[in-house]
Design brief:
Jelly Rolls, Arc Repressor Mutant, subunit A, two-stranded parallel sheet, 12 helices
């Protein structure tokens, strides 16, 4: 199976990525994919299927699943009911190593997270018990979301109906060397997106020729490097506008662009509106 490496974008002001989707705002449909982040998925209702590496199972009335890093999987959501809700929570390994591990009180949760590395599926009982907590996320601020998430993790860690999905470490078609290289590229872009970054530069950092780097990146992510870089920078621009940066020129330079017309085209390509329209929209809220 061909597996894509999905980029999980995490805002600088947040420790987690928490998204709530409905029939009006569906999660982007991706085929087989993996990512180094942990992922917790709650689906309120409807029928669908779980396809995680070699594991397959149908669900009848929503589901709750937790995946550790780098487990290949298909999308879980369904469009059966208009009132359905899908909540997706993703966080990096650093959330554990740099935050939870500093508090011995979280040892129970940390041990639970280690067990998630081969995937965990929870029964309808736990799904129903935690439903109200998951449905709260869409109406909470960042502090409330973090506290709610820790409460959810605690209840998952003590649940007695955890079903491990994979008996052996997951296998994926991206070879380990390419996977390490892609991770390095993502980290570099995350740290230096404001700088001038070229494919040739990344190739040199990875010890590859430019052609080899471009081929490796496309094979692993199903997209070219410049598309990935531009989308990452535009999401950063969106974050700057959301946080009160009012100068389009300032945001453009902060995100690594130096051509206003190119910045405007890329912004409209990924967000559907011009920078000025988006900026005015934020200012009127």
């Amino acid at each position: 199976m061909q597996i894509s490496y999905e980029q999980i974008y995490l805002e600088q002001s947040k420790s987690l990525k928490i998204e709530s989707y409905t029939h009006k705002s569906r999660c982007n449909i991706i085929n087989w994919h993996l990512h180094p982040e942990y992922e917790l998925v709650f689906i309120k209702s409807g029928k669908g299927s779980i396809h995680i590496n070699s594991y397959y199972e149908n669900y009848d009335n929503g589901m709750l699943v937790f995946l550790g890093p780098n487990i290949p999987h298909m999308p879980f959501g369904n469009n059966q009911f208009k009132n359905n809700v899908e909540v997706v929570i993703q966080f990096p390994e650093s959330f554990i190593s740099e935050k939870l591990l500093h508090f011995p009180e979280f040892n129970l949760i940390v041990n639970f997270l280690k067990r998630s590395c081969n995937g965990l599926l929870f029964s309808s009982k736990t799904h129903q018990q935690l439903q109200s907590r998951f449905l709260k996320f869409s109406k909470q601020n960042n502090i409330e979301k973090l506290l709610n998430f820790m409460d959810v993790l605690y209840h998952l860690s003590i649940a007695t109906d955890q079903k491990q999905l994979l008996k052996t470490p997951p296998f994926f078609d991206i070879d380990k060397q390419s996977f390490k290289r892609i991770s390095k590229v993502y980290q570099y872009v995350n740290d230096f997106y404001a700088n001038d970054i070229r494919s040739d530069d990344m190739a040199k950092i990875l010890g590859l020729t430019p052609n080899s780097f471009c081929r490796m990146f496309r094979n692993a992510t199903q997209r070219n490097f410049i598309d990935f870089l531009n989308e990452f920078r535009i999401k950063k621009a969106q974050e700057y506008f959301d946080n009160g940066k009012t100068s389009i020129a300032e945001v453009m330079f902060l995100c690594g662009f130096n051509d206003p017309s190119y910045f405007s085209r890329q912004f409209k390509r990924y967000l559907g509106v011009s920078p000025s329209f988006y900026q005015n929209l934020q200012l009127t809220r």
